[in-house]
Amino acid sequence: MGKKRTLLIDMYGVIIKESKGYFIPYTYEHFDQSEYDRITKAFREEKLFTKAGNGFLSSDEFLFLLGYQNPAETMKDYLKNYLTLDEDFLWFAEKNHKQYDFVLLSNDVKEWGQYLFELHGLHLYFKDSIVSGDINMRKPESNIFSYTLERIQCLPEECIFVDNTVINLNAAQALGINTVLFNRDQEAYSGNIVNSFRELDDLLNNSSLGF
Fold first, then answer.
1. Are 183 and 10 in contact (CB under 8 A)?
2. What is the value of pTM for the model shown?
3. 14 vs 185, which has greater pLDDT?
């Protein structure tokens, strides 16, 4: 039996339905309008969210700087109550995780990725989890893909990367990784496109694709 192919799977916009997340509007909803200028500056000028997603601020530090008095509870409230697991993902994972090595490849705050992993029982299916907040690299930088290939000890052609953002797919494809657009946002893409995990399952089982 040959080596299993690796599925590199994005979190937001693929496993989680909300493609761009909801955290910025969530924050505006949870503060008085008099705080909006301060919050806008924190996101746009101070780039606190980006810093947290790159691993330079912990979740608690990030949320406290935004003004949340109970960062741990805020994190749990947002991730549990405002984000939605795609109901077909667990079906897809159960069907395919023995045939493919599942590896998460996500831009996220370190603690948020860990919480979502445990909340939805993803550890049952994934061989590894590579999150930007853990490694100080993020998609679409080419170095995160090079790092991933080295970490999982795979050649580019042995991997299939599923993401909802074309710029990320292009960066992976430039290194020779097979790519699939999970098309939550109706982006134009010249490569393989699916709109659901049912379609992804069909695509992976179509031998004519040469994956």
1. no
2. 0.95
3. 14
